[in-house]
């Protein structure tokens, strides 16, 4: 059987499992829909949290980023993993003790203000929709390649599946579905890593293999070999860093505090019975996450090495079947600039405009929004090969010549990763609208049944918006997700930290800080990513900080504004300060 048949089988089986779990765990109350009645065991919650956390960015895009960025890609590993340590120490137990449904719930009650609650809802919606765009793009990528459907229809299918189990089961259904999805995604990620590590180094453990001697008889370490391949093609050494120290620092901090401020991750710790269970859940989640995160650098090295050795300076006519099938998705393209029939892979842009619609035969094809032109080799670069970095994990088994079922398994794992996080984000969106806006502000007498109905309607609308962003994404998966982390860092994290550890922080300070941090960060990102992308280079960045790292500066601005404005206005009421002490200390 070929890859497509295997993909239909494995994806069909996993989808049937997800739908079956959703039917079995249908939510019958708002408590079940929002926080699974607070009855999830720590081990189960840790596994579900890991699946919720390890999105399409972790599964599909992180190893792809590292394979292209080399040493610089380590910033994503450090930032995302370190964020969970912050979450365990600073947030999870205290928010669980507070005992509400959502982050805006905490913000609204802690800062005794419906305006604060509304701003928190707006922040949650912006962060969640930015994040979910990356997940739906990941779904579209998988469907586009392995099921041979257009990305548009791939996203539509993904929307339908998420809609079913997120809207029907709520947090209860999502939790148990995410446990199944974690099992699928981690198995799918590790199996090809074991195979390829054995192929390239003779070691079955990828974490050891990518630092071992290559098994090609050269006697070189695999990383030294990759450095050599890079320099021969004109790239910087794979193991050398090119980012500035300050940008690495700011991106790492933004990812760390953004992790600790992500509403769809925080809400998971409202689902366990006790405060102690919240901290234990984070510990389990770290172990489950570490399995994938310690393997990602190895996958990156394996994929990069195999790609270069397979395609560089080789005749196009001799390319294996996987090259041609990926060309059909337009996520990989070859433009023969010098018309010698040889693939020249080098630094620089292979094509100008949207690569998705340039074919290897050099045709100019009209896209939905613009016309794409073939690069002028005299003014652009000698590079002839375009590779979308989001495909590296998906294409890795085929590049390495692994069996068809392994490639199909990776496709099923990529879908599991994207759908698990998308469901968690959609739940945050629906609860923010139904609970924090409608229930808390517009209709406080709303019945439990009516609130549940509004939550499901909100989730349905959120699915549609998420689908639009998946079809029209503002960047590749990990980049989009990194921006979401920056927004979370600049808006939520300071308000939550001050709300827990500084009982004299008042609503005026918190509100001013959140607005300042969010507007500054969002404006910076929109300027460089959307309005004027031609200026998105280090020479134009403030203090050399990229849009992916600007959330750290937004967080600092948030803290400064909050403390300065807070000093002008009266302290919070006594009962609020007593509530804060109750969160931090046992009564």
Provide tags for this entry.
Sodium/glucose cotransporter, mainly alpha, single chain, two-stranded antiparallel ribbon, globular, 2 strands, 587 residues, 22 helices, 68% helix, 1% strand
Spell out the blueprint of helices and strands.
Layout lengths: L2 H22 L5 H6 L6 H12 L2 H14 L4 H25 L4 H8 L3 H33 L4 H51 L4 H4 L12 H12 L11 H17 L1 H4 L8 H19 L2 H16 L9 H8 L3 E3 L50 E3 L4 H8 L4 H39 L5 H24 L5 H25 L5 H25 L18 H19 L5 H11 L3
Antiparallel strand pairs: 1-2
Helix pairs in contact: 1-8, 1-17, 3-8, 3-13, 4-14, 4-17, 4-19, 5-11, 5-13, 6-7, 6-19, 7-8, 7-17, 7-18, 7-19, 7-20, 8-17, 8-18, 10-14, 11-19, 11-21, 14-16, 16-17, 17-18, 19-20, 19-21, 20-21
In short:
With 587 residues, the protein is mostly helical.
Walk me through the structure.
By secondary structure, the chain is mostly helical. The chain has a single domain (3-31, 40-303, 402-584), classed as Up-down Bundle (Sodium/glucose cotransporter), CATH 1.20.1730. It has 22 helices and 2 strands. It has helices at residues 3-24, 30-35, 42-53, 56-69, 74-98, 103-110, 114-146, 151-201, 206-209, 222-233, 245-261, 263-266, 275-293, 296-311, 321-328, 392-399, 404-442, 448-471, 477-501, 507-531, 550-568, 574-584, and strands spanning 332-334, 385-387. Helix 7 (114-146) runs antiparallel to helix 17 (404-442) and helix 17 packs across helix 18 (448-471). The chain starts with a helix and ends with a helix.
């Amino acid at each position: 059987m070929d890859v497509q048949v295997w993909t239909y089988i494995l994806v069909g089986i996993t989808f049937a499992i997800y739908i079956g779990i959703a039917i079995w765990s249908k939510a019958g109350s708002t408590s079940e829909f929002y926080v699974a009645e607070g009855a999830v065991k720590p081990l189960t919650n840790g596994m579900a949290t890991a699946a919720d956390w390890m999105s399409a960015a972790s599964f599909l895009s992180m190893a792809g980023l590292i394979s292209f960025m080399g040493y610089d890609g380590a910033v994503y590993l450090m930032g995302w993993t370190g964020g969970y340590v912050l979450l365990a120490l600073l947030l999870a137990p205290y928010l669980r003790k507070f005992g509400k449904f959502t982050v805006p719930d905490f913000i609204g009650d802690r800062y005794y203000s419906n305006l604060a609650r509304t701003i928190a809802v707006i922040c949650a919606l912006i962060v969640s929709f930015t994040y979910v765009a990356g997940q739906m793009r990941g779904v579209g990528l998988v469907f586009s390649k392995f099921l041979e459907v257009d990305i548009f229809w791939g996203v539509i299918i993904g929307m339908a599946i998420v809609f079913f189990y997120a809207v029907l089961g709520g947090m209860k259904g999502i939790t148990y579905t995410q446990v199944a999805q974690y099992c699928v995604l981690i198995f799918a990620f590790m199996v090809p890593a074991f195979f390829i590590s054995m192929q390239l180094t003779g070691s079955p453990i990828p974490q050891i293999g990518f630092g071992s001697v290559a098994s090609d008889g050269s006697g070189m370490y695999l990383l030294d070999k990759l450095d050599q391949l890079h320099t021969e093609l004109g790239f910087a050494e794979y193991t050398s860093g090119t980012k500035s120290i300050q940008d690495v620092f700011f991106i790492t901090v933004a990812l760390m505090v953004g992790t600790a401020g992500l509403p769809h991750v925080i809400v998971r710790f409202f689902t366990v019975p006790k405060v102690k269970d919240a901290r234990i859940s984070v510990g389990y989640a770290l172990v489950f996450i570490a399995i994938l995160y310690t393997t990602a650098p190895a996958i990156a090295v394996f994929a990069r090495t195999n790609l270069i050795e397979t395609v560089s300076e080789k005749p196009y006519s001799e390319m294996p079947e996987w090259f041609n099938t990926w060309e059909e998705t337009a996520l990989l393209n070859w433009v023969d600039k010098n018309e010698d029939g040889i693939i020249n892979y080098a630094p620089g842009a292979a094509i100008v405009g949207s690569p998705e619609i340039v074919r290897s035969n050099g045709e100019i094809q009209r896209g939905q929004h613009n016309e794409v032109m073939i690069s002028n080799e005299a003014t652009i670069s000698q590079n002839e090969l375009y590779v979308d970095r989001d495909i590296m994990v998906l294409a890795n088994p085929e590049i390495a010549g692994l069996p068809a079922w392994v490639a199909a398994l990776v496709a099923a794992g990529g879908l599991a990763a994207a759908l698990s996080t998308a469901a968690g984000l959609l739940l945050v969106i629906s609860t923010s609208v139904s609970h924090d806006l409608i229930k808390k502000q517009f209709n406080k007498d709303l019945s439990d049944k009516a609130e549940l109905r509004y939550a499901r309607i909100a989730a349905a609308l959120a699915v549609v918006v998420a689908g639009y962003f998946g079809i029209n994404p503002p960047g590749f998966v990990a980049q989009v997700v990194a921006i979401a982390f920056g927004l979370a860092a600049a808006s939520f994290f300071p308000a939550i930290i001050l709300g827990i550890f500084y009982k004299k922080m008042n609503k005026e300070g918190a509100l001013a800080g959140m607005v300042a941090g969010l507007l500054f960060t969002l404006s910076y990102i929109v300027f460089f990513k959307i309005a004027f992308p031609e200026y998105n280079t280090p020479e134009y960045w403030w203090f050399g900080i990229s849009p992916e790292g600007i959330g750290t500066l937004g967080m600092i601005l948030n803290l400064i504004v909050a403390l300065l404005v807070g000093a002008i206005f009266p302290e919070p009421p006594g009962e609020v300060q007593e509530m804060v002490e109750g969160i931090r200390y046992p009564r």
